[in-house]
């Protein structure tokens, strides 16, 4: 898990105007997250079990590298972005670093971007120009205070239907997005879930370009993975959100939903049944 770092560069984000702007954006993000979770489990029964979103540390996650700023150095506030949007954070950090601007990125639900004083306008111009070069990947909005809002664009979306066992899907290395599928299904946390949710129904993939460390344009992915315990009956389902990059070599899990259908008695009976299947598979 990438922990928030204490950074003196963010003292200038505590002005009343900045706090008002940040609070407004955090409320919007929280509303969107709430809506997404409600949509994902809205069709299940009262016995549905829901997990709150959380950030899980993947095996090879690399934190965004930003430069610490001395307490006496003044900075310009440039932008806000989603705290879980690693692809946008990498794009901004790499873009500015390649152009001689030290990025200071930090936050919780919403991350703030500061740059050394006097370089704010240049940074904003670079960001807006870069977004035009990678259409359908990042959206920039303008606020009354002049600070940019930077968000991921989900327009390049693909839906892959499987309705097969996870084992069968992993055996087909020639299929589209195999490196992404393999990275998801082989992640330690998801491998644990597959012991119960043995089947993959579908996977939603959003392709997003971002600036790599060497200045080239790379492709990252936002992923929603849908698993099931039974393809023929509505028993239970599991959905995992993630971002993946470096052709599946690196990524971050961003939260999941799990739900079981039926009355409390039915749910308890099904859980015992599929746990028994797990024990049989271990023998």
Question: Which key features would you list for this structure?
Answer:
disordered N terminus; 2 domains; 283 residues; single chain; alpha+beta; five-stranded mixed beta sheet; 7 helices; 30% strand; five-stranded antiparallel beta sheet
Structure report:
Helix content is 33%, strand content 30%. With 283 residues, it is an alpha+beta fold. The strands form 2 sheets. The chain has a 5-stranded mixed β-sheet. The longest helix is centred in the N-terminal third of the chain and has 26 residues, at 16-41. Mean pLDDT is 79; it is low at 1-14 and 29-65.
List the helices and strands and how they pair.
Elements: H1 16-41, E1 75-82, H2 86-98, E2 104-107, E3 110-116, H3 120-133, E4 138-142, E5 148-152, E6 157-165, H4 166-171, H5 178-185, H6 188-194, E7 199-211, E8 217-228, E9 236-245, E10 250-260, H7 264-282
């Amino acid at each position: 898990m990438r922990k928030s770092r204490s950074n003196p560069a963010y003292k200038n984000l505590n002005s009343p105007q900045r706090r008002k702007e940040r609070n407004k954006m955090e409320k919007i993000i929280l509303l969107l997250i709430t809506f997404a979770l409600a949509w994902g489990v809205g069709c299940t029964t009262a016995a549905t079990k829901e997990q709150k979103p959380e950030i899980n540390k993947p095996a090879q996650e690399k934190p965004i590298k930003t430069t610490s700023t001395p307490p006496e150095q003044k900075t310009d506030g440039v932008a806000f972005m989603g705290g879980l949007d690693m692809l946008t954070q990498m794009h901004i950090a790499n873009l500015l670093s390649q152009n001689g601007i030290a990025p200071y990125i930090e936050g919780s639900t919403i991350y703030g971007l500061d740059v050394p004083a006097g370089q704010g306008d240049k940074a904003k111009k670079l960001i807006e120009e870069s977004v035009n070069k990678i259409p359908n990947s990042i959206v920039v909005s303008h606020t009354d205070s002049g600070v940019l809002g930077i968000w991921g664009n989900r327009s390049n979306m693909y839906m892959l239907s499987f309705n097969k066992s996870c084992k069968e899907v992993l055996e087909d290395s020639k299929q589209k997005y195999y490196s992404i599928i393999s990275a998801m299904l082989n992640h330690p946390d998801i491998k644990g879930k597959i012991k119960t949710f043995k089947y993959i129904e579908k996977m939603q993939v959003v392709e997003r370009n971002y600036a790599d460390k060497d200045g080239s344009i790379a492709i990252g992915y936002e992923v929603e993975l849908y698993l099931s315990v039974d393809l023929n009956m509505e028993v239970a389902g599991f959905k995992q959100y993630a971002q993946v990059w470096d052709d599946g070599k690196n990524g971050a899990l961003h939260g999941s939903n799990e739900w079981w259908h039926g009355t409390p008695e039915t749910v308890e009976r099904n859980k015992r049944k599929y746990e028994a299947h797990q024990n049989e598979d271990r023998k």
